[in-house]
């Protein structure tokens, strides 16, 4: 079962899953990207499930003070309890919010994601800290490996 934070109500209720279920997740991700917060996080798993099943979303918080009406409209249309009332993927792709001129991102945006990291400790979707203790299991980039190989091959080091 996916994380409760991105699960659609139909998943929690063991109802059929459709492409509308995926579009719910798009709404959750869009919410998190524009606010830096999760729309349904509760004090515990039970409260989170309740928030999802009742679609308890607060659009009036100060987190939305810098979010365009088009973005809010996009998210509102996706975070709807009844899957049949959500827009199709094609309708989402033609939403005006996705077609407006790109904006340059300020520090406010990237700094806004910090609370998500802090509140997500212990959840599956947590962003790993920059300085991890477990250096052994951290994947290296292919470029780093190739560079290391070339240095060993040259015999300079």
Broad shape: flat
Name of the CATH class? Mainly Alpha
- Structural class of the helix and strand makeup? mainly alpha
CATH superfamily: Transferase(Phosphotransferase) domain 1
Instruction: Give the second-level CATH assignment, the architecture.
Output: Orthogonal Bundle
CATH topology: Transferase(Phosphotransferase), domain 1
Uncertain stretches: 121-129, 134-157
End-to-end span in angstroms? 49 Å
User: What composes the largest sheet?
Assistant: none
Organism: Knipowitschia caucasica
InterPro entries: Kinase-like_dom_sf, Prot_kinase_dom
Protein name: Protein kinase domain-containing protein
Domain Protein kinase: 1-98
Molecular structure report:
This protein is mostly helical and 157 residues long. The protein has one domain: Transferase(Phosphotransferase) domain 1 (Transferase(Phosphotransferase), domain 1, Orthogonal Bundle). The chain is built from nine helices and no strands. The protein has helices spanning 9-12, 19-35, 45-53, 69-78, 89-93, 96-99, 107-112, 114-119, 142-154. GO terms for molecular function: ATP binding; protein serine/threonine kinase activity. Residues 1-98 form the Protein kinase domain. It holds the Pfam family Pkinase. Residues 124-145 are annotated as: Disordered.
């Amino acid at each position: 079962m996916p994380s409760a934070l991105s699960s659609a109500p139909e998943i929690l209720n063991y109802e059929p899953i459709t492409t509308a279920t995926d579009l719910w997740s798009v709404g959750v991700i869009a919410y998190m990207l524009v606010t830096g917060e999760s729309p349904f996080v509760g004090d515990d798993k039970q409260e989170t499930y309740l928030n999802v099943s009742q679609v308890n979303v607060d659009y009036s918080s100060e987190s939305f003070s810098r979010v365009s009406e088009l973005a809010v409209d996009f998210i509102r249309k996706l975070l709807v309890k009844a899957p049949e009332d959500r827009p199709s993927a094609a309708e989402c792709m033609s939403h005006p919010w996705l077609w407006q001129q790109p904006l340059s991102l300020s520090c406010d945006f990237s700094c806004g994601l910090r609370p998500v990291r802090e509140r997500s400790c212990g959840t599956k979707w947590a962003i790993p800290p920059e300085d991890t203790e477990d250096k052994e299991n951290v994947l290296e980039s292919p470029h780093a490996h190739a560079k290391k190989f070339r240095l060993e091959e040259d015999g300079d080091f």
